[in-house]
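Obj: model holo form, ligand = zinc ion.
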Amino acid sequence: MQYCFTNRFGGISQAPYENFNLGLHVNDNPSHVEHNRRLLKAQCNVPHIMFMNQVHSADVTVISGIMPVPTCDAMITNQKGIALAVMVADCIPILLYDSVNEAIGVVHAGRTGSALHVGTRCIQKMHQVYGTEAKDIKLWMGPSIGGCCYEVGKDVTVGLEDCLHVRENRYFLDLPSFNKADFLALGVKETNIVHSTICTCCNPDYFSYRRDTITGRFVGVIWL
Ligand SMILES: [Zn+2]
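Output (holo structure tokens):
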């Protein structure tokens, strides 16, 4: 198993997508994005990378071969040569690995997906399909917007009270902590969770929707 998280450097996209934008849905020049995706494939040295049409759901797609881009927010596979990618610009890119059954997964966890427990739903699907046990999962939570910057309206905090911080009558969500607590509750070992401390909104090396609105997407990628 290998994995990586990209940042905004190393591609050919022009402002405001400069420059390693991997999202085809953000109105960047498609030929630039396709070029960037070929660069990513070469860097990972994999024959194929599966992307998702991400819609803030808790739907998990099982990838058993090359197929059209699925509409979902998590994918799992045990196929060698098919890398799984999750695109983000503030949401949490989560990569999962079950070394016992040689299976992997990716999760797109924003506010809506987190409230729907998309991360633990993905592990439950890995259990159904591959026999994965939560205690055997190793997972990586990549750079995402932190509780420092993720201010929201009180109306969208329902179900996320456990990671809500109120400062001077303003509401902030700490989604990485919420997801981590969810994983621990399912039985993932704390020592098997690697959690980036980078806030995408604070750190200009990463695309941030909250900071820039019109911007690119970086990715987390994992492959067997
Ligand atoms: Zn921040």
